[in-house]
Amino acid sequence: MPNTLAIIPARGGSSRVSRKNLEEVAGKPLVVHAVEDVRSAGLVDRGIVSTDDQEIAAVASDAGGDVPFTRPSEHATDTASASAVVSHALDWFLERDDEFDVVCLVQPTSPLRTPADVDGSLERLATTGADSVVSVSEYVTPPQWAVESRRGGYLSEFFDFGALWSDRTARSQDLASLRHPNGAVFAATTEAWREHESFYTPRTVGYEMPPERSFDVDEPWELDLVRALASESSGGV
Question: Could you tell me the CA-to-CA distances from 191 to 14, 105, 198, 202 in Å, in that order?
């Protein structure tokens, strides 16, 4: 199997949920869930936490996480891209003559992901011959039902598929089954990453996860929801 680096991005700031990466789900900070997923994944050779925040670094380290550097402030703003974080980490290792065949991004905001999802994504990348893999899940509500408010405030179909404003409203089971990236796991060959600086390449495959494990925490209500789901799955009341 290829030599794989997994990066856990965990900056200190957050625009919607304050100090989000330190918020707890099932008794553990989000960053710790990611650290444990990476440490338990059999196909990851080295997992690191990329953070600008000393408290996050300490919490991750206490949980067994590897924090080899402090992320530069220019890569830790609200507008900083994930691609800049990944490229910075790869360059940091390259400067120390340490190279990897595959780079993987494991986000703390997906605490219901499992180590098997990390391994499953990496295995799919290796066995399909693709350049990159993105974890996906099925839409709970068909996107073909999207509506928008136009002139006068009246609703109309966004995609003009005739799924709603037609002689017969399309049932969900009659529509194409579509997936969306769920934010849990991304991976690419380092060669493809250097060429595209993105996990979305012309040769990207999906690794499917069930919707109930695919929540990406971005809003306070999503944090409440994953806490409830995690409690239910662990037998809590």
Answer: 31, 16, 11, 13
